[in-house]
Amino acid sequence: MNIEAPLKNAAEHRPMIHAFVTDFYSDIRKHTDLGPVFNNKIGAHWDSHIETLTDFWVTVLFSVRAYKGNPFLVHKQIPDLAADHFDVWLGIFETSANRMLPTDLANSAVEKSHRIADSLRQGLFFKP
């Protein structure tokens, strides 16, 4: 097994992942429900946020350590986030992934996004 292959793939595909993340969050920012939630939290820092999320998705999709954060803690600090926002987010994500990524990568991204969203939703909103 060539352990350099994931790093090479990640480096080669980062511009495509960046374009996808930019496209996706452009739609999020315009959404009537999600736009205010994200715009209030991120403010004028969208450029750095896009870079961070590009690193996150490169990490998720190519199994390399580009992202060095904690998604749970980040989402816990969003005051207006609601459990039902995840379904809306997932719908926009899937549309953008299918528009911007090759089919196999889009399918992988969508599958992983559902697992991540389910985990975050459970961690943030589950009440026994």
Compact description:
The chain is mainly alpha-helical and 128 residues long. The protein has helices at residues 5-30, 34-42, 46-62, 71-76, 85-100, 103-125.
Question: SSE layout and pairings?
Answer:
Layout: H1 5-30, H2 34-42, H3 46-62, H4 71-76, H5 85-100, H6 103-125
Helix pairs in contact: 1-2, 1-3, 1-5, 5-6
Keywords:
globular; 128 residues; mainly alpha; Globin-like
Question: Would you mind describing this structure in some detail?
Answer:
By secondary structure, the chain is an all-alpha fold. The protein has a single domain (6-125), classed as Globin-like, CATH 1.10.490. It is 76% helix and 0% strand. It has helices at residues 5-30, 34-42, 46-62, 71-76, 85-100, 103-125. Residues 1-5 have low confidence and may be disordered.
Overall number of strands: 0
Run of helices and strands: HHHHHH
Number of helical elements = 6
> Structural class given helices, strands, pairing?
mainly alpha
Give Rg in angstroms: 15 Å
**Separation, N- and C-terminal Cα atoms:** 44 Å
Q: Tell me the number of structural domains.
A: 1
Report the CATH topology name: Globin-like
Mean pLDDT: 91
Contiguous runs where pLDDT drops below 50 for at least 5 residues: 1-5
Task: Report the CATH superfamily.
Answer: Globins
Largest β-sheet summary: none
Helix content: over 70%
Q: What spatial form do the alpha-carbon principal axes imply?
A: globular
The fraction of residues assigned to DSSP E strands is under 5%
**What is the architecture at the second tier of CATH?**
Orthogonal Bundle
Q: Can you tell me the CATH class?
A: Mainly Alpha
